[in-house]
Amino acid sequence: MSGGSETQGEKLDLAARAAWLYYIAGRTQDQIASALDISRPAAQRLVALAVSEKLIKFRLDHPIADCMDLASRLTDRFGLTFCDIVPGDPSQPDARGGVALSAGRWLEHYASQTAPVVLALGTGRTLRAAVAEVTTISRPQHKIISRVGNMARDGSASAFDVVMRLADRIGGRRYPMPTPVVADTADERDLLQAQRPFRVLCDLAAQAKATVVGIAEIGWNAPMHKDGFITDAELAELSERGAVGEITGWAFDGQGRLLDGSINRRVVSLPLEQPPGRLVVAVGNGPGKIVPIAAALRGRLISGLITDDLTARAVLDA
Q1: With contact defined as beta carbons under 8 Å apart, do 167 and 139 qualify?
Q2: Secondary structure of residue 103 in the 3-state scheme
Q3: What are the backbone dihedrals phi and psi of residue 244, each rounded to the nearest 5 degrees, phi first?
Q4: Under the phi-then-psi rule, with left for phi > 0, alpha for psi from -120 to 50, and beta for the rest, what region is 132?
């Protein structure tokens, strides 16, 4: 984490998380240090800060307490490796600022490490906003790779590809995927995946320390459709076959099962493991993300989640 550059509000948020883990979840200071990726003395100081700032009464008097409880419930129910829930705004349930900030901090945690790191990214509006939150640093030893193509069917570049943006912020090496998200035919997909750049991405993805992806619904004017990656007819077919969401172009149904054939036979993205063999964190929030997030969790398509409390509560209810 960025440590000394934290604001007072961010420090209180972290203190509230530490206090929740200590007083409510019953964790030891060593366990708190591990969960928050800080030293044991820092965990001890944060718990003391929560007490001195009167966050601790008979209950934890901070909105983070509810978020921590939701994160714990999601982790237990779906066997997640990582889960971060931020407070949402009921008056603007689609607002992605808090989720983007959390995802940006998560990316910065990995990007700030001095040992060489491979980070794999999906694409999307929330991810683009998250990358904008990453502090500019110099880490030329890192490699930033894309799991999904960066071109629409007409050859235009995606406005939401984030590999180049993150690599620019940290000075790392960039590995975009110069292909369409969906090929016109299965043979074309096979030809694109036989090329050396795609094989290089596959090899690097196997070395990735972590992967962060966007998650989107399948429906009229949803991202894949709105941004020109699939046609009206293809969208109709996906809907008829029960698709509710997609991750890096891969469509799945309400139980998180990847659809056989159809669009998935022509998706050029790196394959999704089910369950993931390494940390794969989905980022997203809002009413339109509830069904796809719940499905992805049921199908073990992801092993981590960053969302807001409004979405998290609805996912648990679903």
Answers
A1: no
A2: helix
A3: -120, -15
A4: alpha
pLDDT of residue 2: 43
27 Cβ partners below 8 Å, 6+ apart? 21, 35
Helix/strand/coil for 220: coil
Task: Give the residue carrying structure tokens 């981590």.
Answer: 304
In angstroms, the CA 105 to CA 96 distance is: 14
- State pLDDT tens for residues 175-222: 999 899 999 999 999 999 999 999 999 999 999 999 999 999 998 888
pTM: predicted TM-score of the whole model, two decimal places:
0.82
Taking the chain, what is the end-to-end CA distance rounded to the nearest angstrom?
Answer: 33
What is the C-alpha to C-alpha distance for residues 243 and 235, in angstroms, rounded to an integer? 9
Neighbours of 113 (CB within 10 A): 13
The Cα 33–Cα 36 span in angstroms is 5
Ordered structural domains, the chain, with CATH: 3-61 (1.10.10), 66-317 (3.40.50.1360)
Helices (H), the chain: 8-19, 29-36, 40-52, 64-78, 97-111, 125-131, 163-170, 186-193, 196-205, 223-226, 232-240, 290-298, 309-317
Tell me the pLDDT tens digit for each residue of 11-62. Answer: 888 999 998 888 878 889 999 998 898 999 999 999 999 888 878 765 555 6
